[in-house]
Design goal:
The complex is a heterodimer of chains A (469) and B (252).
Chain A lengths: L1 H8 L1 H68 L5 E5 L5 E4 L1 E4 L8 E2 L4 E5 L9 E9 L5 E9 L3 H47 L15 H50 L3 H33 L7 E4 H18 L3 E6 L4 E4 L1 H19 L7 E8 L3 E7 L32 H11 L3 E5 L12 E7 L4
Helix pairs in contact in A: 2-3, 4-5, 5-8, 6-7, 7-8
Chain B lengths: L2 H4 L7 H4 L11 E5 L3 H13 L3 E5 L2 H10 L4 E5 L7 H10 L6 E5 L4 H9 L4 E4 L4 H13 L9 E4 L2 E4 L4 E4 L2 E3 L3 H12 L5 E2 H9 L9 H14 L7 E4 L3 E4 L4
Parallel strand pairs in B: 1-2, 1-3, 3-4, 4-5
Antiparallel strand pairs in B: 6-7, 7-8, 8-9, 10-12, 11-12
Helix pairs in contact in B: 4-5, 8-9
The chains are: A alpha+beta (469), B alpha/beta (252).
Chain lengths: 469, 252
């Protein structure tokens, strides 16, 4: 019982049932329509032939009288598949013809019988069985009535034929339904079952599972493909999250351990001045940790958009020039030259502090990594605007970032330099990206000199949308 | 929570112990309104070691009462307090014409928080977590503000002179040419002569950015300035206070 109900819940069974019903209706309509049409055509033919006979009968009667008519009808009645002929007296009693009896009243009215009527043909064996017939009745001037008719067969025969046709049609439809059921249920629904099986595994935590994709490229395959794309994204996000927590664990654990060791060392020191130096080192270490926490906190707050209210027109040209001026001596100290190409009077709607910090981060990075190129030790800060973009870029000629890593370096704590030999939190570009997102902009990373150059360099561009007034 | 780890967790912070700094501003008396008792205990102890008398109130109402009953040089007020929040304490005090400089401490630590804090009548703003040396430097600068040489047109430290009108800097009568930004840097340092000025304070007042400079940008500017004002002279004036910031002072 429950199995049956379950089966009925399956789409295949429901679809098949629906198809059968639809086909049955179509078939019934077709059968009825075709029979009605053929009946009409047949009836028309019968009428035509009967009309011709009536004309003949009239002619014969005019020339040969009743005797001639009788002879002619006798001759015609003996022919195989003959029409029905009746000559009746004025009161309706049958005088001659190939019919045993006629439904009373038929012979009383001249012209076409409006409906098929009953009659009994002569039968050689057994009692006569009633048949249907259609006929034309002619009243002669001497009171005789002549009926010419055509047998329409036994009653129920027509219905029998219709029923037969319907049965055949239904049998074909049943077979069709089975085929559909096999086609959809056995094939398509099995695929859905496979998909649910895969989904169950994914829900159990195996995000590497993918839904099966067939070769046909049909709806199911397209559905599977988009679900797979979604899974890919979820898996990536999940991995990213894991990466972040791993990195947090690593990047916070390492300095904490170092801090602890230094504190233990300081505790063990006898000389006051050595202990002082050690404690200063501990403070420096703690400050770095606080910075990391602050940066993390800042990114989360920026990403949460909680400071979006603090937006006002920001003079990007001034900020860029300020930042370049602030970092120029730092660059010089590192043996670098900082040059600028800043277009004047470029303003965006935003938060000056955040944009400032973002540019500082970019300059920090550039100075940190660009000093590895002795040939072209320049850093360029450019600011320009076109119709719908404001582009602020910081370009260096350092080792750059390989194209496949460019999406990675904006993630929290991701640093290309695995050994962590350069100082930094690994959060700089994450903050820049978060700031840009808050401003509706995007971050673009490219190589300054082309990816194949010995010193590809890195150009980081902050793209701001131009506010339309 | 957690502030104690950063706000002068060490009973005697070597950052300022090293400079032998005791009571740059003599007999300064401050009020700390902070509900985190542990953090407040560290803070008052650390202030006392720096020669500053620090009273403590643990909620907004008692803080307001103490602030209106006693004369303090500076108040350090946490933003989130039981019974009356920090900002309302400040605006109430201002309404009662108590114009003691106020430093707002905040765990919220974000740009808009700073703006609302300063609008409510605060004079400075420090987001948690902070280094105690930063707090101390700011409190001292605020304490000095009462007699601040805001109107003075000429700052002098030893034989170094800075003319705020003509933008001229001389040492022992010899003119020193400074870039505009270097001038502002020196101006701010000299205005707070004898007091520690942190890197964050310099970025705030000279460049007008309110965040922690992550790298040595400020150091590079200060060392440039130092080389200009000390290069041809024997006596150093601009001192680096390790773990805290800078101080310009004539050692006599």
């Amino acid at each position: 019982m429950s199995r049956f109900r379950l089966m009925f819940r399956s789409t295949a069974v429901r679809l098949s049932a629906l198809y059968i019903l639809l086909f049955a209706l179509c078939a019934a309509f077709l059968v009825v329509y075709v029979t009605a049409m053929s009946e009409r055509i047949l009836a028309q033919q019968v009428r035509d032939s009967l009309t011709r006979e009536i004309v003949d009968i009239n002619n014969v009667y005019d020339r040969g009288g009743a005797a001639g008519l009788l002879r002619m009808l006798e001759r015609r009645a003996r022919q195989p598949g003959a029409n029905l002929y009746v000559i009746a007296g004025p009161t309706g009693e049958l005088l001659a013809g190939n019919v045993a009896s006629v439904e009373p009243g038929v012979l009383d009215r001249e012209g076409w019988t409006s409906l098929p009527f009953r009659y009994e043909p002569y039968s050689e064996n057994g009692p006569p069985r009633p048949h249907f017939a259609t006929a034309n009745v002619l009243l002669l001037d001497n009171g005789l009535r002549v009926m010419v008719g055509r047998d329409l067969g036994e009653p129920g025969r027509f219905r029998y034929i219709v029923r037969q046709a319907l049965m055949v049609a239904l049998a074909i439809m049943g077979a069709g339904a089975l085929v559909i059921w096999f086609g959809i249920g056995r094939n398509a629904l099995k695929r859905i079952d496979r998909m649910s099986a895969a989904t169950t595994k994914i829900m159990a935590g195996d995000l590497s599972q993918r839904l099966p994709v067939g070769l046909s490229g049909d709806e199911f395959d397209r559905l599977s493909e988009s679900l797979n794309a979604m899974l890919e994204r979820i898996e990536k996000l999940n991995e990213g999250l894991k990466q972040v927590s791993d990195n947090i664990a690593h990047d916070l654990k390492t300095p904490l351990t170092r801090l602890r060791n230094k504190a233990a060392d300081a505790l063990a020191m006898d000389r006051e001045d050595a202990r002082k130096v050690a404690l200063e080192g501990i403070i420096g270490e703690s400050d770095q940790l606080i910075r990391t926490f602050n940066a993390l906190l800042m990114i989360s707050r920026v990403e949460a958009g909680s400071i979006a209210a603090e937006m006002s027109p920001v003079d990007l040209s001034a900020i860029s020039a300020d930042s370049a001026e602030l970092y120029e001596p730092v660059a010089e100290e590192a043996g670098l030259t900082l040059v600028t190409a800043i277009d004047p009077d470029i303003t965006v709607q935003g938060n000056r502090e955040l944009i400032g910090q973002a540019i500082f981060n970019l300059l920090d990075n550039a100075i940190k990594y660009a000093c590895d190129n002795p040939v072209d030790p320049t850093i360029k800060v450019s600011l320009s605007r076109d119709a719908d973009m404001v582009r602020l870029s910081v370009a260096d000629h350092g080792p750059g970032v390989p194209p496949d890593m460019r999406a990675e370096v904006t993630k929290r704590f991701v640093r290309l330099d695995e050994s962590r030999s350069k100082p930094g939190t690994g959060l700089g570009l994450s903050l820049v990206e978060a700031v840009l997102e808050l401003h509706g902009g995007t971050l673009e990373l490219s190589s300054t000199n082309g990816d194949a150059a010995p010193h590809p360099g890195l150009t980081v561009t902050m793209v701001f949308p131009v506010q339309k007034p | 929570m957690g502030t104690e780890a950063y706000s002068g967790g060490a009973p005697r912070n070597p950052a300022f112990a090293e400079s032998g700094r005791e009571s740059i501003v003599p007999h300064m008396k401050i009020l700390v309104i902070e509900d985190d008792l542990e953090a407040a205990a560290y803070m008052t102890k650390a202030f006392r070691e720096a020669g500053i008398v620090a009273d403590h109130a643990s909620d907004g109402e008692s803080g307001l009462f103490m602030a209106s009953e006693n004369a303090y040089d500076v108040m350090v007020i946490d933003r989130m307090l039981p019974r009356r929040d920090g900002l309302s304490v400040i605006s109430e005090l201002r309404k009662r014409s108590v114009n003691t400089p106020v430093l707002i401490l905040s765990a919220l630590g974000q740009v808009d928080d700073r703006v609302t804090g300063l609008r409510a009548g605060g004079d400075d703003y420090l987001p948690k977590p902070y280094a105690f040396s930063e707090l101390l430097a700011r409190v001292e600068v605020l304490g000095r503000r009462k007699g601040a040489p805001e109107q003075e047109m000429m700052y002098r430290v030893g034989d170094l002179e800075l003319d705020r009108l003509s933008h001229e800097v001389r040492r022992s009568g010899k003119e020193i040419i400074l870039q505009p930004r270097e001038f502002r840097l020196l101006e701010y340092l000299m205005k707070n002569a004898g007091q520690v000025v942190t890197r964050t304070m310099l970025l705030e007042h000279v460049w007008d950015y309110h965040f922690d400079p992550q790298t040595n940008v400020i150091d590079v500017h200060v060392s440039r300035l130092r080389s200009k004002i000390e290069k041809d002279f024997d006596k150093p004036l601009l001192k680096t206070i390790r773990g805290a910031g800078y101080m310009i002072k004539d050692e006599g």
